[in-house]
Amino acid sequence: MDPISPLEQALHAARALVLADLMAGEVAEADVVSLVEESVAQRRWWVEQWPDGACFVAGLVAQDVQDALLERYGRWPLCPVCGYGDPHALDVEPELGPDPHWVCSKAGVKVAPVGALARAAGGKPSS
Q1: CA-to-CA distance for 21 and 122, rounded, in angstroms?
Q2: How far apart are CA 125 and CA 24, in angstroms?
């Protein structure tokens, strides 16, 4: 059995983290999971061109899925911190960097690392 390359490890980890967040928000339907797969396929080419960017893939996949969901369904993930005003989505920060987090730009706080929205919403992390 061949070892899994660092590129594939980064892509699998990104997929798992974003799927965990989708499951936390109870939006991991088949068509939404397909959006994750599309993003991972596109990011595979990107990271093949720039291997040093492998540590950025999770945040990029999260942003890709967020953008695709906005176009098709609406804002995701909704902010669990603010209990006032119109519902608003969290942002991924840094936009291009390691250790991506979901942040509320309105409140100026980190809500959760990408992959850990279940804890931020008071749920249990996915296993």
Answers
A1: 13
A2: 8
